[in-house]
Write a structure and sequence with these properties.
Length: 487
């Protein structure tokens, strides 16, 4: 065993990992990376097919991001945001506000930025702000929150309370406050979808009456009638990540946002996964009509804007720094900000913070990442990569173990099943998804499954040949891991 692997086994406790299984084999120890390629301590190379858990938007060691980091290191690495401001964080806040308010999207203006450390804390900030804003404005003395079944919003106690994945959250139920849940629009397994399984995305051939939207309306109406009105609705726009890459059919987000607004509820958009261009740059038709053929259309970086929805809170992390450093941001409105203004002795301050809030290194590299994301040439490249991913995934429908292929922008989830004609799932205890990922790693492609859903989320710098290799290895891994499998 490599000495670094021995050190890991001796001292490191890994997240979301059964450590008994981990200690049975030598782990892959990553020591280098460039672009979409990672290299381990033994010199083997791998394609990073999930952008290092959905963070490294531009790949590893991008020269523009490296340069931004080095420039900032030449000045200062960190100073406190408690009682002090700093240059890169101020510029970053201004850039985020500009990006979060596209002219074509109506709704509240997001004008204030609260920096924190990761996706969990970004949601924790939104939760606390929404709770206290609701109380101070007299909307409710006991604010109540609603989120989607299968939702995951982080691992701090507030964020866990908003989540509804028993596998992750049930153990902590005694520590949590109660929140409401409403069905997610999981077209592939929706009990209201009367369409028989086909070899295409379930959203494309569903047969329903938008029962999922009706349930959201019913939840809001019943809560109000019982005197327990919902104060805020929390949603991952366009696709739920940790739930299993569950995409929403076109129009769902817009409809449920209208319901929340009609009931005077705040809207919290969790774009920790979906932000910064991950959900796409628009359809080909939108692209071609956006100022002339082949020219980049003005495209928002955020998923909620794809359906014309503007939230009251926009929670960002993961790709904010291009995967270089932990950093998060929660954007909100002047109305929320003003509710916390007062004289010192009134103690209306938002009593929440982090030691590394507004860190200069993170802010500097985030500014460089935003410049890349907003460049027309980069937008065109992302759109071409999205189209290539869609084309390369299409042949996977021929594999009997593939039940559903779900793609939103440069996010793809491939759900594996024991019988596609009956949508029969594999028993999770058999670890089929883990076995597929292990087979892929042996072939030089790294990703991490969510149960029986294999995730592909390539960095934006991925070359066409690299993307083709990722999907080809995925197909080989599925065939190897599911040969002779029964439910």
């Amino acid at each position: 065993m490599h000495p670094l692997a021995k050190l890991d086994h001796q001292f490191v406790w890994h997240p979301f990992t059964q450590m008994r299984d981990w200690l049975r084999a030598e782990p892959i120890v990553i020591v280098e990376g460039r672009g979409a390629v990672l290299r381990d301590a033994r010199g083997r190379e791998y394609l990073d097919a999930n952008s290092s858990i959905w963070t490294n938007l531009h790949g590893h060691r991008h020269p523009r991001l490296d340069a931004a980091l080095r420039r900032q290191l030449g000045r200062i690495a960190h100073s406190s945001a408690l009682g002090l401001a700093n240059e890169p964080a101020s510029h970053l806040a201004a850039r985020l506000v500009a990006a979060a308010n596209p002219p074509a999207v109506a709704g509240p203006r997001l004008a204030k930025v609260f920096f924190s450390d990761d996706g969990s804390t970004a949601l924790e900030v939104a939760l606390k702000l929404a709770y206290e804003f609701t109380r101070r404005c007299g909307r409710s003395a006991r604010p109540r929150f609603l989120s989607l079944a299968g939702g995951y919003h982080g691992d701090t106690m507030g964020a866990v309370s908003l989540g509804h994945i028993d596998r992750f959250h049930a153990a902590y139920r005694g520590l949590l406050f109660k929140t409401g849940a409403v069905m997610a629009p999981y077209c592939y397994r929706c009990p209201h979808n009367r369409a028989a399984p086909e070899r295409r995305d379930a959203r494309e051939h569903r047969r329903c009456q938008w029962e999922c939207v009706a349930q959201v309306e019913r939840k809001f109406s019943r809560a109000r009638a019982a005197g327990r009105a919902i104060s805020a609705f929390v949603v991952e726009p366009l696709i739920q990540g940790a739930a299993g890459m569950i995409p929403q059919p076109a129009g769902w987000l817009r409809q449920v946002a209208e319901i929340a607004r009609a009931h005077n509820a705040l809207l919290i958009a969790d774009e920790v996964l979906t932000g910064f261009g991950r959900t796409g740059t628009g359809t080909a038709e939108e692209w071609e009509t956006g100022g002339g053929a082949g020219k980049a259309r003005p495209a928002s970086l955020f998923a909620c804007h794809r359906e014309g929805v503007q939230p009251d809170f926009l929670c960002l992390a993961k790709g904010l720094t291009g995967g270089y450093l932990p950093m998060a941001a929660t954007l909100t409105t002047p109305a929320v900000f003003d509710a916390f203004l007062g004289e010192y002795g009134e103690f209306k301050t938002f009593f929440h913070g982090h030691s590394y809030t507004g860190n200069q290194l993170g802010a500097a590299v985030a500014l460089a990442s935003l410049e890349l994301l907003e460049a027309p040439a980069q937008q065109r490249r992302r759109r071409r990569l999205e189209e290539l991913l869609r084309a390369e995934l299409r042949p996977l429908w021929q594999l009997p173990a593939v039940g559903d292929i779900r793609q939103v922008g440069l996010i793809a989830g491939i759900e594996l099943v024991a019988d596609w004609q009956r949508r029969t799932p594999f028993d999770l205890r058999r670890g089929v998804g883990q076995r597929v990922s292990a087979a892929m790693a042996r072939r030089g492609v790294l990703t991490r499954p969510i149960g029986n859903v294999i995730v592909l989320m390539p960095p934006y710098c991925t070359a066409p040949a690299q993307l083709r290799r990722m999907v080809a290895v995925l197909a080989e891994g599925i065939e190897e891991a599911t040969a002779g499998q029964n439910p």
